[in-house]
Amino acid sequence: MPVDSRIGSVIKSRIDTKSQDYQDNLAAMQELWDLVTVEMEKVPTVGGQRYVDRHRKRGKMLVRERVEALVDPNTPLLELSPLAGWGTQDWVGVGTFCGIGVVEGVECAITGADMTYRGGSANPNSFRKSSRFQEIVRENRLPVINLNESAGAELPRQADLFVQGGEGFRNLTQFSKLGIPSITIAFGPNTAGGAYTPGMSDYTVFVKGRGTAYLGGPPLVKMAIDEVVDEETLGGAEMHSRTSGLSDYLAADELDGLRIARQIVRHLKWKKLGPGATEPDDPPLYDPAELMGCASADVRIPFEMKEVFARILDGSRFEEFKPLYGDKLVCGWGSIHGFPVGVLGNNGILFSEEASKGAQFIQLCNRTNTPLVFMHNITGFMVGSAAEQGGIIRNGAKLINAVSNSEVPHFNLMVGASYGAGNYGMSGRAYNPRFIFSWPNHRIAVMGPKQLAGVMDIIARNAAAGRGVEVDEEALAAQTGALEAQIEEESTALYSTGRMWDDGIIHPADSRTVLGMAISAAHSNNIQGATEYGVWRH
Prior knowledge:
8-stranded mixed sheet
């Protein structure tokens, strides 16, 4: 008989999707997603309809229309950090598009400025978004396409931009050194520092009559050297194509520029370095749409992480590691769209046993060059005298050591809470995972709002006792309530994604698709595990 080489055994779901509890949770999660949807709808026209209309009258495409015309038809497009800047002084999306799309069969990183937003000028948040985008390009070895049209930096905010702003140009030329090709299409102005984007790119395409590049525009030239010159003579597409040599290709119009970019990608003959999908890419046995009701909309209510696994992993198959030991951390092997992965998910707080188990599992996955997917619903490490005497710091440090020194790609899916050092043990943002995606119920903070406010209440009471003064109960209650409300607001998924602590909030039903795209992108680079770790106490 043929041997079944597929990973693991099938997870049996115990969720009753017709139960009142499930339906109530589904409705609560839908309300959270509706809030995200309202914000998402603002992104394609961030500058407002007036500026969209002005753009169209000039015969120009919007940045997302350019992206849609660039990528292969009927292929998925993964936009990154679409709600960057939410809750800040900047518009949602911060005036830039960043994403991963398929061009001529090649997964490419694509970015472009939204000219409806202050002429495509860069602000500190758009710089941070672009910096994260370039980090993704480098780590995953993705060809990058710049859809360039920008007025440069927002000059009134130059103090927060200028010094670190050169990083983007440095990255482009380092990409070239690393063999990561970059293509820039100049649809409009590339002014001042922005002129270095085409200058540092491997390939440049300038759109005739539209694309320009100059370090100083006609007004600055007049002021600096008293030369009167028009834009085309100074830095137009034809001049750069025929005279300066900055432009490699002269496009007749925007669509022609996109056609040329596709042609360039085709001749790259790009090959991935990773092994690719090696397992059967069969759908889960349970409908991924049920994920909307699987995780608790209220992160204070526990849920079974394997119910999430069952709706994301291929065939709902899962080979669990140490199922009877440290069972609050569920670890094991499976695959997503054919890509083998090690999966870690939380069913409760991390004790010493969970920390030791997780550290061993991460080492095993590194030995077999298996990428890791961390699914967060964690309130932190256990506290108290029994935990301390049992070595929670020693064992927690062991887990963080393994996470820190692991070299296979890490992917984070925030399906619930991610509090305290539990965030670190589960390879949070500070541990450089390749991608982080959040569900709308996600919460992240040092600890839960009530716990944090309660701790500060105790500290205030102890401080008053130490000074020998009476506690002003009314003032302390007001202070505690205000702090709890502040932490409640600052721990939401929208607050988190607005500050780019993740790469986007996604609909739970899209988790399998999004993770599959992210893992596939990572396979553009080598998938190689660590063989050495820092010293830890046994």
